[in-house]
Amino acid sequence: MTETDSTPSWLDGVTILVVEDETIISLMIEDLLGELGCQTVWQAGNVRQALALLDERSPDAVVLDANLGGEFAYPIAARLAASDIPFVFATGYGREGIPGEWASRPVIQKPFSQNMLEEALRSMLPGRPAAP
Fold it and tell me: Do 29 and 89 touch, CB atoms closer than 8 A?
């Protein structure tokens, strides 16, 4: 939101956790989220960091890379599902790279656009205000 723009973003007050092992991609996702109006983005680069963060805090939604430096992120996905925290897999493998037990979850394939990210978030956060 710019100083002259007083219209709140549909992501005002929403906290997004980005779990991504590649710093440049994590920062790119944070920038995309910022452009969508998200002001609070937490980051984790591996399974251990993400689970530790989830022990202490609860985000509103999560953007989750499926492969974190050779370690699959499914323990994080299981924790999120058990806690009813919505998440989207963001992966270069696409939907075909996600095991069947997670097939009902949203997937965006890297590289993805801001529109793809926004569409996934809107599907996960259905009570938010509509786009202007």
Answer: no
Secondary structure (3-state) at 85: coil
Determine if residue 70 is left, alpha or beta; phi over 0 gives left, psi from -120 to 50 gives alpha, anything else beta.
left
Residue 116 lies in a domain: no
| CA Rg value for the chain | 14
Give the CATH number of the domain where residue 73 resides.
Answer: 3.40.50.2300
Inside any domain, residue 120: no
Q: Give the torsion through C-alpha atoms of 39, 109, 68, 81, to 10 deg.
A: 70
Q: Are strands 67-68 and 71-72 parallel, antiparallel or unpaired?
A: antiparallel
pLDDT tens-place string over residues 87-124: 999 999 888 889 999 989 999 999 999 999 999 999 99
Q: Which domain range does residue 76 map to?
A: 15-100
How many degrees, rounded to 5, is the angle at CA 95 between CA 94 and CA 100?
145
SS (H, E, C) 52-75: HHHHHCCCCEEEECCEECCEECHH
Residue the block writes with tokens 């097939």: 103
User: What is the pTM for the complete model shown?
Assistant: 0.90
